[in-house]
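Prompt: May I have another protein with tokenized structure?
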Amino acid sequence: MNPPDASSPGSMESAARMFVVEMRRERRSFWAILLVFFLLLAIMFAYNLVALSSLSGDQRREEFRSKGENAGALAEVLSQQNTAAYAQAIAQRETQEAQKTDSIAAFRRALRDSPDTLVSAAERYAVGHLYGRSLNSSTAAVVAGALESKKLSASQRALLNAALFDWGMPNTMSEVSLGEAQQQVERNTKVLLADPKYAAYGHAAKTGFWFRKANSGEMYMDWNNGCKELVDDAQQALKAAQAVATKVGSAQASGLNLNYWHGQCRRRHGEPVEALKDFQAMMKVVGAEDFPATNPYKFQAFHGLAMATMALPVDSGVSGEERTQQVQSAIDMLELAGEYRGAAGHIASGQTSSLGNIGILTLRKTTPDKYVEALEYTEKVDGVTASTWNLVGRLVAIRAMQKPDAPAISDPVLSAKYSRKELKKLAFNTLAKLAYLSSDFPEAEFKRLLDEQHYDALAEVKACINKKIDCFQTMKK
């Protein structure tokens, strides 16, 4: 039997089918391989995106930490330098006071006369000190000399000891030092409070201690860390302020210290009406032409008056233009306070304690460019040192400008400077600095100063301040 002819039509058709089948199989394999290739490529692309995103997140986290730590460290160094400069200025003023003719005469009496003859002058110096006219080395020598007298009553001895002890207490103290000081203060004031003629002096001495406590906590003049008690004692002590000024023969002994401490506690607690009374009382004294610009109560009165006035409720009967003028007057007053801080011994970073509040006040204007004005000003202050008040004003302005209904910026240069992209960078930098500053954030006062539309920015500050890198995790991205 002959084999089939390979060239026959049937054989050729069978081979063609086999070829087509093989081609289809190869094509399926090709597409399968291609599909696997693209799948792997997609996986690699996604992986790289995740890795890149993670790397970017880590970089931003490190940038946040670095900016914040550097700003916080620099602010701390500048604060220490300012404290040292201010302390030196105070020491120089005290030396100058001690070298005045009347102080030298008092010192000579302390060395020459018997303790009994020093009692009257010593009591006058002691009372004056507790009401704002500080002792100096010469007058303190008189007080110390009078303590040798055997004729002192228990109240007189307690008064002299209270004044000397207050003179030696630093403004900022550790918890241990505060505890020890409180025991000494209470020993003296217990005697003074039991004597109706000396009770006001006892309240004044206690007020001085409460100030040290309120000034030494994590938050300056914290209501729950001395201010509440300070307010009560200061109110009692101030009842005798005018009589003390007359007795001492100096307006500087009219309770300027008590007014300032009481006003600061009230102001930061969100009670501007009460605070205003204190700063107005101070202005009656420090506003006199012969009151020295170097005296700290000068800048304290100007600063306090400006801030308490701005925290008052907005008068609905005042026009927008009048309101802006009022704000500008308060800003001018803060600028004067900054100048008086310089005269009293503060360096540039110390002057920001007043100048750093101007950004917040600018936001109370009714002009459409107030946010840009606030950013421009806070940028200058931030170039000196990181200041909590200044940074809060800066963040509030940034968040306001990021809102859809924010007023347009007419100046093309400023419009580019504060574009949405740049505002996002500014917010990042501002929060980084706030995260590494102390938690001194008097929320009640800020809410008095700002309109309710800005409370969301205040909440952001509260959640971030002093939280360090934790702030990065929770801040708006």
